[in-house]
Specification:
heterodimer, A: 2% strand, B: alpha+beta, Cytochrome-c3 Hydrogenase, chain B, three-stranded antiparallel β-sheet, 15 helices
Chain lengths: 342, 364
């Protein structure tokens, strides 16, 4: 393989892929959400544009692209403009650290299925996903309007609170795997022969609840509760800026689902990999297993949204401070103790 | 997070103000300090308009008051007009009216259930409630061709008789409703989030409820046994056997339970009416141009939303001199501030939803 291909073409291709992959997932997710919610509610949902309406999100994005970009006179121009970019940027950047599978060997060249490998990849992803909160705060604050302000305030309190149990449960995984490298964590699950979600169910449940809250999704979608705050922090946004917020939310969901799969459900590993009789499952490419698992958690998001009423702010905060944080602390101590003794 | 009291304008364009209601809220962070409803965005001058119409021409316009329960408005006005004109309605007509208005009560409560659940964030229930309501609306369509603004009750009786085939279809719909309700209750009744959002929220005790003039299911949720169908029976309601469900706590959850039980009671009443439908005429003989002797009358009925009253004053011509309507939504809305004070902003939408208001009736 020539150096040109290895040093220029492949990295360039990866950069395109790391933008395309989340975008394609976002399109699929928006479509999935609208169709599945519709089916749960006994409706049809979008089914006209493309096969079964799959192109509907693309059509919507195109429509938003041609919409007028409205900025209120009282809004702070700089922060107002930067907010959607910040949200979108941090979501996309985090995907650079999300591995899609084991490296592939092509002759002498090893193609890694990630852009940046870092021994603390997990921390960077969590950090980047916290950066997106700034976008929400800026957006809500710079709109200089009451509903966005309340949405932004809710979002700050909610996301900051839920990051504590999120961090504590991620720590338990890092403890058991003795690594913060996502590829390494998956490999450890393979060698341990058991996925961490089954090894540490408490960690998984706490992580999942916190992750739903972190992504501002139902039943924790208070920052954008449409029946209360109209559209929350992005009420004043229109056109492509609104689309950025919208797509970033879905990209964030894809990111969180990827994390759950990597941390707790063995990433690209086939189910029951240790069992001889099921060895044929290895024939399916790891990437397919990975996608299937991610889709399951994305489906879970939609299912929860279609089923539950919305939390109220005080009970949301009570849930995290009175239940999730003590629980995740205890869980953390217990796992640390077990890890120390073994 | 100390930030001082702000005024928040909720509506008239807001997803959960059920039309064009505007609420001026004073909130401290998320705690509601004051609520001031601003109404009139849907004012069409109905009461004045009626003065230029004949007695029979008024009836279709009453459809547009509480458009979720148009038959109940028809009945309220028609009963008052009949009382004033001294028209004796045949028994069969009275029973058919009961079939219609109880079906309407059922449809209205189902729509309310969907709206309120949607306000609290259970968006699927909106669709389930409406799908169940559709089955009832299909019956109305079959009866007289309209689904929303039905105009299915006329002065002197009803426009059409109902036959055995129609009764069979009504029964079939009634059999289907409990399944819908069962599904919805399985989703909500014991749901922790739902209970957190509704139990103890927007409380009003019996004395306050009476003082504020609250009527209908919202009043009965506070434990006051006051249902016009029992208290001052009209249109043969005294011939039916049904119960008036009562709540205890007067909170959103009790208002929810009371309305759900009222749906069951309505089903019971319609079944009784279909079983014992008396023979006879479905309408009295009413002169084409109805001239009413001078006088005045006030008549109240139990509409799905509360006590609906019509005052009519006649001056001897074919047009009423004055019609005044006592609309339940208008009066129930008064107690909103009492219920919301000290609660969180999120609760305002839930409480407003639990009051079951319709702006067409408030603004007239």
């Amino acid at each position: 393989m020539t150096p040109f291909v290895a040093d220029v073409l492949i990295p360039a291709g990866k950069i395109v892929a790391v933008i395309l992959y989340p975008m394609v997932m976002v399109v699929v997710m928006i479509w999935l959400e609208r169709r599945v919610v519709a089916l749960i509610q006994g409706r049809l949902g979008p089914n006209r544009v493309g096969f079964q309406g799959i192109a509907q999100p693309v059509a919507d994005a195109l429509k938003l692209f041609f919409k007028e970009d409205i900025r209120q006179r009282q809004a702070d121009a700089f922060l107002f403009n930067i907010a959607p970019i910040l949200v979108m940027f941090s979501s996309l950047l985090a995907f650079c650290f999300v591995p899609l599978g084991e490296p592939i060997r092509i002759g002498t060249y090893t193609l890694t299925l990630w852009i940046a490998e870092s021994p603390v990849g997990l921390l960077i992803i969590l950090g980047l996903s916290s950066v997106s909160v700034f976008g929400v705060i800026f957006g809500g604050w710079a709109s200089n309007s009451k509903y966005p302000l309340m949405g932004a305030l809710r979002s700050v309190v909610q996301v900051l609170s839920y990051e504590i149990p999120l961090g504590l449960t991620v720590l338990t995984v890092a403890f058991v795997a003795r690594s913060m490298d996502l590829v390494e964590i998956v490999r450890r699950q393979e060698s341990a022969g058991v996925w961490y979600g089954f090894l540490m169910p408490v960690s998984f449940v706490v992580f999942w609840i916190s992750a739903v809250a972190e992504t501002n999704r139902a039943p924790f979608d208070l920052p954008e509760a449409e029946s209360e705050l109209v559209a929350g922090y992005h009420t004043e946004y229109s056109g492509m800026k609104f689309a950025f917020f919208y797509m970033a939310e879905y990209a964030h969901m894809v990111l969180v689902s990827s994390l759950v799969v990597l941390l707790f459900f063995g990433g690209w590993l086939p189910p029951l990999g240790g069992v001889k009789a099921l060895a044929f499952l290895h024939a399916v490419p790891g990437f397919v297993w990975y996608l299937v698992k991610i889709m399951f958690f994305l489906y879970l998001y939609v299912w929860i949204r279609a089923t539950f009423p919305r939390y109220r702010f005080d009970s949301l905060i009570r849930l995290v401070w009175k239940w999730l944080i003590p629980l995740s602390l205890l869980n953390f101590l217990a796992i640390a103790l077990v890890r120390f003794l073994l | 997070m100390a930030f001082k009291e702000i005024d928040l304008n909720m509506g008239p364009q807001h997803p959960s103000t059920h039309g064009v209601l505007r609420l001026k809220l004073a909130v401290d962070n998320e705690v509601v300090l004051r609520v001031e409803p601003v109404i009139g965005y849907l004012h069409r001058g109905m009461e004045k308009l009626w003065e230029s119409l004949t007695y029979t021409q008024v009836v279709p316009l009453t459809d547009r008051l509480d458009y979720i329960a148009s038959l109940s408005n028809n009945l309220g006005y028609v009963l008052a007009a009949e009382k004033l004109a001294g028209i004796d309605v045949p028994r069969r007509a009275r029973w058919i009216r009961i079939v219609l208005v109880e079906l309407q009560r059922l449809a209205s409560h189902l729509a309310w259930l969907g709206f309120m659940a949607n306000d609290i964030g259970a968006m699927s229930v909106l669709l389930y409630g409406f799908e169940a309501r559709e089955t009832v609306l299909d019956l109305f369509e079959e009866y007289c061709g309209a689904r929303l603004t039905i105009h299915g009750i006329r002065i002197g009786g009803v426009p059409r008789d109902i036959d055995a085939a129609f009764a069979v279809r009504v029964r079939k719909v009634l059999d289907g409703i409990p399944k819908w309700l069962g599904d919805i209750r399985a989703l909500l009744d014991e749901n922790r989030i739902w209970k957190q959002r509704t139990v103890g929220v927007g409380r009003i005790d019996a004395a306050d409820a009476v003082a504020y003039g609250l009527t209908g299911p919202s009043l009965r949720a506070s434990g006051v046994d006051w249902d016009m169908r029992k208290a001052l029976p009209y249109s043969s309601y005294d011939e039916f056997d049904f119960e008036v469900p009562l709540g205890r706590n007067g909170d959103v959850y009790d208002r929810y339970l009371v309305r759900l039980e009222e749906i069951n009671q309505s089903i019971r009443i319609v079944r009784q009416a279909l079983d014992g439908l008396p023979e006879g005429e479905f309408s009295a003989k009413v002169p084409r141009v109805l001239k009413v002797a001078p006088g005045e009358v006030f008549h109240t009925i139990e509409a799905p939303k509360g006590v609906l009253g019509f005052y009519i004053k006649s001056n001897g011509t074919d047009k009423p001199e004055r019609v005044k309507m006592k609309s339940p939504s208008f009066i129930n809305l008064q107690s909103l501030e009492h219920m919301c004070k000290g609660n969180l902003f999120s609760d305002v939408v839930g409480i407003l939803g639990s009051l079951d208001i319709v702006l067409g009736e408030i603004d007239k």
